[in-house]
Design goal:
10% strand; Threonyl-tRNA Synthetase, Chain A, domain 2
């Protein structure tokens, strides 16, 4: 009955818990409260990305955690603050209060305290959400609001939506006070009265102790006065010691100054006795702005020509019908006489960018002085003078910072500029100026007699024309990404050649695996054979070039000349017979006397080799042809390969071998090679090809690795495209940056039409037949075997007859051949019936 009465009155029933439970529960609550309050105080959002919880700042957590309780403390603090917001700090305070009450004040466990704690924390959360207090704290810690999840939904959404803000605040304050009373068991009014009584008692006690306090203050003042006196004495002693030290320093300075004066007078007297001229320090010249992007006015009439055709005698390739050929004129190339839209350079803008560069470098502790500014067609070069003792590497390390400061897409730093004592910073122009091909063709450098095969390439940053000489290169590699200007460069090179050479002076062999790039030149009379588009026929075309090269060298040896120019400019006895009729026999005898010696010495050494003379019918016919119909002149042969990567995938070994042979030996024979590729990989542009082609042109590429494959150094990856290129001249290790010449498709078609309308194409049928047979897998009787292969076959036959056995490994060991070449020699010997077919592990039969 008593328990029922207690329940009716709303009182808690007596607990049956043991007496030690309150102390244990109190200690536990104190511990939990301390852990939670330390977790909340040291909470930071940067500790939380371990669980991938949204709203955090970093992708990686702090290691080690900044929270005093570690990972667990960070998790507890995050969930408490996420639910209750800033009111979550009330939860550990309430737990500490309950722990102290249970452990030390004899309080009993009851539901009233738990309900009061929940109401106390929850109402505080809702109050913060409704009143929007501590919103900056919530933003800084990336929470929903200062009241957390509970305050946002219960306070803002529910209570404020029902009672508006004022009603919600009144209700929440009332509930908050009720919860505090239920939690602490203290009444606010009674608590205030007790506090007032305590304050009155403290005031009376303080008035009674005023006399004792005054006495203590007087004693403290006496002690302070004594301490101050001692301090003043110490300061006076320090001041006296400092004065003595300063006096000694002054005396030392005076003595030093006297010694310096004496030494200076001694130096002056010595200089008077032995006068010497002292060199002044180098003065930085006054900076200047050079605008080289403007087009040059043409100095020739539109209908004029850069070259006039020279009348030539017959050459080895067919030249009949080319006597009346006329070279193209400038009227086939368009030229805009009006000024470009970018009329000059804004000097104020250029100086502003240069000042930005100098200030940026000085901000990082790099002291430089402003130099010249050179504005080119594509880029502008800003020069700076480093201070004495400054390493230029410190400037290159700030490349990204300079690009950020100048707002440039990409920059290139030349540290230093070759041939100058300045560092160049190259920035792309916003408005690029095209370089028309006609402007380069009208330049004196292109028409100069020093360049045998001039190539109009472009203009450098200083406005100078870049004219290459294919005869001096003697071969050229052009590489770059798609759309960087490689095809336009090839067109400008071919057009430059067409403006100087007629079909009887220079012939083309064009290889176009992509089928679309070289088709516009299909009607040129300069072509030896139609444009080769089948990759399987390219090897045969290159072998014909190798054979033509060997043939020319044999004729050079018979004539006693060293190279292509010597053969074409040799004295011709037939022309000397005409003026004097009486002495032709003597002249003939004089010219015929060295022929047997030359043939017996040079020609026999080249043709026979160490294995004795060759008795094949083809060689005898060739010798007869050379003696009876020796060509008066040879034309240049230019082999253009548009895409090397496709050929290296089809027949890499044969293509690489033939290109290497042409690049190594063909210069003196008047045969030149131009290779282009848009895939500059190490397996395409191999080391053998690069070693034999020193002259290269690189357009924009995607990575520094591709740049190193082309140029053996970085730099092409920083070009801006659209004709911006790096040119490596022959015999030089210095790269030249230039803007490539532009020639439109309409101009190319007009030039090709002009050339093709004057004469019909005359392809060499024998050469074309050889290439066609090579493309269909060989032909018969070894038609696709070059002279070098024939020499190697003779050596292979000698090894086989000596050893009386035939195998690929034997030829590799004895003749030091590669596996591919040795296997090919075995296949040719088998086709000619000299050895038997392979039969597993058995030895081949030998039929010779």
């Amino acid at each position: 009955m008593a328990s029922q009465k207690n329940r009716v009155r709303g009182e808690e029933p007596e607990s049956n818990l043991p007496p030690w439970f309150n102390e244990v529960a109190g200690i536990a609550l104190i511990g939990v409260g301390l852990i939670l309050i330390l977790s909340l105080i040291t909470f930071t959002p940067h500790d939380m990305p371990i669980l991938g919880i949204g709203g955090m700042v970093d992708n990686e957590p702090n290691i080690p955690r900044e929270n005093s309780i570690g990972v667990v403390g960070a998790l507890f603090a995050y969930f408490i603050l996420f639910i209750f917001g800033a009111a979550g700090y009330l939860l550990p305070i309430g737990l500490l209060w309950l722990g102290v009450a249970y452990a030390f004040m004899g309080a009993k466990f009851s539901k009233r305290t738990l309900i009061g704690l929940v109401c106390f924390v929850l109402c505080g959360s809702c109050l913060l959400a409704v009143t929007e207090l501590l919103s900056s704290w919530a933003v800084a810690n990336h929470f929903m609001g200062s009241g957390g999840f509970a305050g946002h939904w219960l306070g803002s959404k529910v209570l404020e939506g029902l009672l508006n803000k004022t009603g919600a605040v009144i209700l929440l304050v009332v509930l908050y006070l009720i919860g505090m009373i239920m939690l602490t068991g203290l009444h606010p009014i009674q608590f205030s009265k007790v506090c007032w009584v305590k304050f009155q008692e403290w005031r009376v006690k303080r008035l009674g102790d005023k006399e004792r306090i005054a006495e203590k203050e007087s004693k403290r003042a006496a002690r302070d006065a004594e301490k101050l006196a001692r301090q003043q004495e110490r300061e006076a002693a320090k001041a006296e010691a400092k004065a003595k030290a300063d006096a000694e320093k002054e005396r030392a300075k005076e003595e030093k100054a006297k010694k310096e004066d004496v030494a200076k007078k001694a130096r002056v007297e010595e200089e008077k006795k032995n006068p010497q001229v002292e060199m002044d320090l180098k003065e930085i010249p006054k900076p200047k702005i050079v605008d080289s992007s403007q087009r040059k006015k043409p100095r020739m009439d539109p209908g004029s020509k850069p070259f006039e055709k020279k009348k030539q005698d017959g050459v080895s390739l067919s030249t009949e019908g080319f006597e009346d050929y006329e070279l193209p004129g400038f009227d086939l190339l368009t030229y805009d006489d009006s000024e470009p839209e970018d009329q000059g350079a804004d000097q104020g803008e250029l100086l502003s960018i240069q000042k930005t560069i100098v200030d940026t470098l000085k901000a990082f502790g790099v002291d430089v002085s402003a130099g010249d500014i050179t504005r080119g067609p594509t880029i502008t070069r800003y020069e700076v003078y480093p201070s004495m003792g400054l390493r230029v590497s410190r400037i290159t390390q700030l490349e990204a910072d300079i690009a950020r400061a100048t707002k440039a897409e990409r920059i290139n730093i030349l540290a230093p500029i070759p041939g100058k004592d300045t560092v160049g910073i190259e920035i792309a122009n916003d408005n690029k100026v095209a370089v028309p091909l006609r402007e380069l063709l009208q330049d004196e450098a292109f028409t100069s007699a020093k360049k045998k095969i001039p190539l109009a390439l472009g203009k450098d940053v200083y406005g100078n024309t870049v004219i290459g000489d294919l005869a001096a290169m003697p071969h050229l590699l052009v590489a770059g990404a798609t759309g960087a200007g490689k095809s336009v460069c090839i067109n400008s090179i071919i057009t430059s050649i067409l403006f100087k050479f007629s079909p009887d002076e220079l012939r083309f062999i064009m290889v176009d695996p992509k089928v679309v790039e070289m088709q516009v030149y299909g009607n040129l009379p300069h072509l030896v054979v139609p444009v080769v588009t089948d990759p399987n026929k390219v090897v045969a075309a290159l072998r014909w070039v190798v054979n033509e090269m060997e043939k020319r060298y044999r004729l050079f040896a018979k004539c006693g000349v060293r190279n292509f120019d010597g053969y074409n400019s040799r004295p011709r006895p037939e022309k000397e017979e005409e003026p004097e009729v009486v002495e032709p026999e003597e002249n003939v005898e004089v010219e015929e006397e060295p022929d047997p010696e030359v043939i017996e010495s040079i020609a026999r050494a080249l043709e026979d080799g160490e294995l004795g003379p060759s008795s094949s019918a083809d060689d005898e016919d060739e010798l007869d042809l050379d003696e009876d119909e020796m060509p008066d002149r040879f034309p240049y042969i230019v082999v253009i390969i548009d895409e090397l990567a496709d050929l290296m995938q089809t027949a890499p070994a044969d293509v690489e071998m033939n290109i290497a042979r042409i690049a190594q030996k063909a210069r003196a024979a008047g045969i030149h090679l131009i290779i282009a590729t848009q895939t500059p990989r190490a397996d395409v542009v191999t080391g053998i090809i690069k070693a034999n082609i020193p002259s290269r042109i690189a357009f924009q590429v995607s990575s520094a690795l591709d740049s190193r494959v082309i140029l053996d150094t970085k730099g092409a990856d920083k070009l801006v495209g659209k004709g911006d290129m790096l040119y490596l001249p022959p015999g030089s290790a210095k790269l030249e940056r230039a803007q490539g010449a532009f020639v439109s498709d309409e101009e190319v078609e007009a030039i090709v039409e002009h050339c093709s309308n004057q004469t019909e194409q005359k392809f060499e049928e024998s050469i074309q037949q050889t290439i066609e047979q090579g493309g269909v897998d060989g032909g018969d009787d070894g038609n696709d075997v070059s002279d070098a292969d024939e020499e190697c076959l003779l050596k292979c036959i000698e090894v086989i007859t000596t050893e009386q056995k035939a195998s690929t490994s034997l030829l590799q060991r004895r003749l030091r051949l590669g596996y591919t070449r040795a296997a090919r020699m075995m296949d040719i010997l088998e086709e000619r019936g000299m050895i038997g077919p392979a039969d597993g592990a058995k030895a081949r039969d030998i039929y010779i």
